Automatic annotation (TrEMBL):
Keywords: ATP-binding, Kinase, Nucleotide-binding, Thiamine biosynthesis, Transferase. Signal peptide: none annotated. The keyword Chloroplast does not apply. This is Phosphomethylpyrimidine kinase. It comes from Streptomyces clavuligerus. Its EC number is 2.7.4.7. The keyword Kinase applies. Pathway: Cofactor biosynthesis; thiamine diphosphate biosynthesis; 4-amino-2-methyl-5-diphosphomethylpyrimidine from 5-amino-1-(5-phospho-D-ribosyl)imidazole: step 3/3.
């Protein structure tokens, strides 16, 4: 049996709740083989990000080529890329790879700590997003990239069009920061898919964005369409948030293995 192959290009989270660690846990939970290219190393825990150190572009390029040229890949997910030089390197690599790409344009951490240099924003807009099959920005990242500020559900459509104008084929605008239900908008500019889930009373949500993007990439690697992969990923992340647990003294992580802990019927 050959498992679908998914590659994450992102930062390492020493606390294990987000980043590369969350990506690989998600890929395993969803029945795929996860592989990794580490773009940055963070000192991070439940209280925040105490520091990060980006890897040189040649190290990122070598990791990527080592995996893709030998093992191959059926979907790629990008997360924290930290600097303009890394964004440019990764954009070039994924543009030359024949596989769907999910771009999570990580700008800040769950705790509000910056994870992307301001000097990298033009490279994200002009190089990384045009190479994406799907982009998955949250509302803060929409504002960071386009200037559009969303205050209610009606603004999700404007945000989607602003991101689509930067080049991805599809965009998923994550409305989790809005009041009410957790509502997201998936669109390619023509077809719209509104995804809703009840807002859960659980503050332990570290790693939600990384986990959702990785779950979508896992679905694409299995051959699902973008709408199918996003719907499956939304169901997975909703369960993971519901099962989120305390860790340390701050915000705990979602539970990537929640399905394995469900009682047998």
């Amino acid at each position: 049996m050959r498992l679908p192959l998914v590659l994450t290009v992102a930062g390492s989270d020493s606390g294990g709740g987000a980043g590369i660690q969350a990506d690989l846990k998600t890929m395993l939970a969803l029945g795929t083989h996860g592989m990794s290219v580490i773009a940055a190393v963070t000192a991070q825990n439940s209280r925040g990000v105490q520091g990060y150190w980006e890897l040189p572009p040649e190290a990122v390029r070598a990791q990527y080529r080592s995996v893709v040229d030998d093992i191959g890949v059926q979907a790629v997910k990008t997360g924290m890329l930290a600097s303009a030089s890394l964004v440019e390197t990764v954009a070039e690599l994924i543009a030359g790879t024949d596989a769907p790409v999910v771009v999570d344009p990580v700008g800040v951490s769950k705790h509000g700590d910056p994870l992307l240099a301001r000097s990298a924003l033009d490279s994200v807009r002009g190089l990384l997003l045009p190479a994406a099959t799907l982009a998955t920005p949250n509302l803060d990242e929409v504002t960071q990239l386009t200037g559009v500020e969303v205050v209610d559900e009606r603004g999700l459509r404007e945000a989607a069009h602003a991101i689509l104008a930067l080049g991805p084929r599809w965009v998923l605008i994550k409305g989790g920061h809005l009041p009410g239900d957790a509502v997201d908008l998936l669109t390619d500019g023509t077809d719209e898919h509104w995804l809703r889930a009840p807002r859960l009373d659980n503050r332990h949500t570290h790693g939600t964005g990384c986990t959702l993007a990785s779950a979508i990439a896992a679905g694409l690697a299995k051959g699902l369409t973008v709408p199918e992969a996003v719907r499956a990923a939304k169901e997975y992340i909703t369960g993971a948030i519901a099962a989120g647990f305390p860790l340390g003294g701050g915000i705990g992580p979602v539970d990537h293995g929640w399905r394995f802990r469900q009682p047998l019927s």
